[in-house]
Q: What sequence folds into this?
C-alpha cells in the first residue's frame, strides 16, 4: 500500500519532516512511502534574491510534483506545511483546492489522513495550523489520524510535537534543526497512517 506524503516547504524544514514521516511508513510491512511536493507560488525572482530560499529549494529539487493519480493510488495520506499566519500555506491549500474532481467522485472518502507542520515561533501556529488544516480533509471524507500520547515524547517535548500531528519549531531564522523528540513524533505519524491504512484496506 502506498502512503502519499504531500508537502510544501520554503526553507526545507517541512521537507525534512516529510522524510521522517516516510521513515515511519517504511517501518510497517506492506507500506511504501511516496513523497511529493506542490507547485511554488513565490515568484522565482524573490527566491533567487534570498540565499535561504535558494538553499531550501535546492535540497528538494528531485521531488516530483503530486498528481491526481498519486492521490488516487494512496491508501493513506500525510499533508505537511509550514505555518503562514497560524494557518496552512497557500501553496498546499492551492493543491487541496484542486482536489475538486476527486472530491465530487468521493475518491478520497475513507482514506486515513494526517497533518504535520513547522512554525517559526513556539506559539505561532503549532496547534492552529494542524487543526484548521483538518477541516478540508474532513470535507473530502478522509479519516483524521493524529498521534496518541502512548508516544511519550508528546509529554516531554520542549519544542514541537502535538497530538494533532507532528510539529517542528524552526526558530525565527527557520534554521533550528528537527530535534530527536520532534523526529520521533514524525516517524510515529508515518507508522500510524500506514497501520490504519492497511487495516482499512483489509475491511473494504
Ligand atoms: C509569510 C510567512 C508567514 C509566517 N507566519 C508564521 C506564523 O504565523 N507563525 C510562526 O510561528 N511562523 C510563521 N512563519 C515562519 C514559518 O512558518 C517557518 O519559516 C517555517 O516553519 C519553516 O518551514 P520550511 O522550512 O519548511 O519552509 C511565517 C513565514 C512566512 C514566510
A:
Amino acid at each position: 500500500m502506498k502512503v502519499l506524503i504531500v508537502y510544501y516547504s520554503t526553507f526545507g524544514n517541512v521537507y525534512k519532516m516529510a522524510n521522517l514521516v516516510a521513515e515511519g511508513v517504511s517501518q510497517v510491512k506492506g507500506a511504501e512511502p511516496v513523497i511529493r511536493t506542490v507547485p511554488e507560488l513565490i515568484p522565482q525572482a524573490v527566491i533567487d534574491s534570498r540565499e535561504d530560499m535558494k538553499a531550501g529549494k535546492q535540497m528538494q529539487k528531485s521531488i516530483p510534483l503530486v498528481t491526481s493519480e498519486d492521490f488516487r493510488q494512496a491508501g493513506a495520506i500525510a499533508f505537511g506545511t509550514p505555518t503562514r499566519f497560524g494557518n496552512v500555506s497557500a501553496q498546499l491549500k492551492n493543491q487541496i483546492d484542486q482536489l475538486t474532481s476527486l472530491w465530487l467522485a468521493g475518491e478520497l472518502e475513507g482514506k486515513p489522513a494526517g497533518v504535520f507542520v513547522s512554525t517559526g515561533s513556539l506559539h505561532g501556529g503549532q496547534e492552529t495550523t494542524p487543526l484548521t488544516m483538518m477541516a478540508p480533509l474532513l470535507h473530502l471524507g478522509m479519516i483524521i489520524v493524529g498521534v496518541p500520547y502512548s508516544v511519550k515524547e508528546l509529554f516531554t517535548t520542549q519544542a514541537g510535537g502535538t497530538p494533532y500531528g507532528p510539529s517542528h519549531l524552526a526558530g525565527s531564522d527557520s534554521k533550528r534543526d528537527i530535534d530527536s523528540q520532534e523526529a520521533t513524533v514524525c516517524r510515529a505519524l508515518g507508522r500510524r497512517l500506514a497501520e490504519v491504512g492497511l487495516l482499512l484496506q483489509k475491511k473494504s
Observations:
- Residues 9-14, 56, 82-86, 118-121, 124-125, 170, 174 surround flavin mononucleotide (CB under 6 Å).
